[in-house]
C-alpha cells in the first residue's frame, strides 16, 4: 500500500494505482476527456493534469502512478490555468456548430468549459476542416467536431478488437478515422456504436431517423407499430433523470402510445420465439452428432447480435456454419408483424410500418441487410436507439414522469422472463438452457437463486457445464451427456474465445456472444455514459423484471404457442425457415 496526500487529504492505495483513482478514493474528482474506465490510459488530452510537489512538469493523473509520500494538488492556480489553456486550445480548433449539434445537451467539452469558467477563447485561428461521413446506416462521423481525444480509437481497438479507427497524420493535421481517411463503409467496421457511446462531443453519433418515424406516423395509409427491446426498459429513464437501472416499462409504453403508434409491442415476444427456434436448432445438431453419428457444426453460436454477426463475417468466416441460422428477435418480430399480424388486420405487408426501439446502433445496419425480407418486403423499416426515443418523447412535450403505467398490446406483447434477460450478457444462454433442459428432461433447469450464476456477471469470458440425466425417452442419446457452454461479451473477448475454439484448446456445444460490454444493456445506442456501475444497475433491473414474471420460460408463452398453432406450424418448419431464419456472408479481411 502507498500513502500520499491529494489536496492535503491523506489517502492509502495499492501500489500501481494512478493519481486519478487515488483522488477518486479521496472523494476528489479530476476532470478527464480521453480516459476510459478499465482501459489503458493514454494521457492524450492533458485535461487531467495535476501538480506534484517537487516535480517541475505537470503530470497526467490518468497515467501517472502514485508514489510513497507524494503530495498532489489537483486545483492549484497553476493547474487551473494550465487546464483552462488546454480546454481553450481544444475549443479554438473545434468546429462544433454548438447551436444545432446533436450533443448540445450532453456535450462533455461544453460542460468542462462551463466548469472551468471559460467565457471567451484567447486563441483565434484555423478550425478543423469539416467533413461528414454518412456512408454507413448505423453511425455518422463529423470530422470538424472531433477533438482527437482518441476514446473511439481505444474502444474500437482495445475493447472490440475491430481496428476500424486510428489517428492519421500529425499535429494540427491529425484526424481520427479509418486508414487513409477513408469512409467507414470501406473498412471492416461492425457498426456497434461503441465509438459513439464514448465520444465526448458530437463527432460520432448514431444516424438520426426520428424524422422518418414522424413521417410514417403522419401517413394515414400506414399502420405503424413499434417494438421495444428488453434493454430499453432499464435505461430509458436515464434520459429523464431517473437513476440507472430504473424500470420504466409501463411509462415507456404509455409514451409510445401518445406519440401516435397504432400498436405497441414487445421484442421480448420475438425473443421467446427465438428460443423456440434456436433451442430446437441446438437439440437438432446435438442429435445429428450424438445419435446419428453424422457431422454438424458445433458449437452452435448465438446470432442475436448484429455487430457480432458482422464481426464473424469479417474476421472468422470459417466459423459462419457454427452461427445459428435464426434471425435476431428484432427481425423475427418484423417478419411476424408483416405476415401473421397483418393477416389478422387484413392488411398487406407493405401497409405495416415496423419501428424498432433498440439499445444498439448495429440494428440500423441489420434491418437493411438484403436477406431481411422474409415478409416479401423489408421486415423492419426503421430502428431508433434509446437515445433517439428519449429525444422524440421530449420533442413531443410529454411529461414522462407523469405518465401512467400501461400494458403492451396483444397478440405480440406477451413475453416471459426468459425473454427479458436477453438484455444481459449470459441471458440468451440462460433462456435457451431453461427451455432445452425442460424439453429433454421434463424438469425445470436447476438454478442458483433463480439464475444460472456461472454465465451471469461482467467477467469477459464465462463458461459452465451441465450434466443431463434422467432424460425423456425421445432424448435417450443425451443421457449422461455433459453440455459445455461459454459466454463472451465485448468483441475483444469474443475474439479471444473464438481463437481458443479454433485452436482446439476449448470445446463447447453452445456459445453466446454479445457485441457490447455487458450485453445489450451496454449497447452503443444507450444513454451515455455507460460505466461498469451503470451496467450492473441495468443488469440488476433486468433480472428483477424476469423474477417478477409469472412465466419465466419461453416455451410457456401461450401467445407463442398460438403463433405456431395458427401460422408457423413447428420450430424449424418450412414457414419458420422462410420467415425466421437467414444466411451469412463471407466478408473476410486479412488479420
Description:
There is one protein chain. By secondary structure, this protein is of the alpha/beta class. The protein folds into 4 domains: 2-75, Ubiquitin-like (UB roll) (Roll); 124-206, Alpha-Beta Plaits (2-Layer Sandwich), CATH 3.30.70; 210-269 and 330-402, Rossmann fold, CATH 3.40.50; 276-326 and 417-531 and 543-580, 3-Layer(aba) Sandwich (Fe-only Hydrogenase (Larger Subunit), Chain L, domain 3), CATH 3.40.950.10. It contains 18 helices and 18 strands. It has helices at residues 19-25, 77-93, 108-115, 151-159, 194-198, 210-217, 249-259, 267-290, 306-315, 329-344, 362-367, 386-395, 417-420, 427-441, 491-502, 532-547, 558-568, 574-580; strands at residues 2-6, 9-13, 49-52, 59-60, 71-73, 132-133, 139-142, 166-168, 175-177, 204-206, 223-228, 263-266, 300-301, 352-358, 382-385, 461-467, 482-489, 510-514. The strands form 5 sheets. Strands 2-1-5-3-4 form a 5-stranded mixed β-sheet, sandwiched between helices. Strands 12-11-14-15 form a 4-stranded parallel β-sheet, with helices on both faces. A 4-stranded mixed β-sheet has the order 13-18-17-16. Helix 8 packs across helix 10 (329-344) and helix 8 packs across helix 14 (427-441). The longest helix has 24 residues, at 267-290. The chain is globular and about 80 Å long.
Q: Helix- and strand-based class?
A: alpha/beta
Net shape: globular
What is the tally of helical segments? 18
Please mark out the parts with pLDDT under 50 across 5 or more consecutive residues, or reply none.
none
Radius of gyration: 25 Å
CATH class of the largest domain: Alpha Beta
Going across the biggest sheet, name each strand in turn: 2-1-5-3-4
Distance between the termini: 42 Å
**What's the total number of strands?**
18
- Could you report the average pLDDT, rounded to the nearest whole number? 95
Helical content (DSSP H or I, runs of 4+): 25-40%
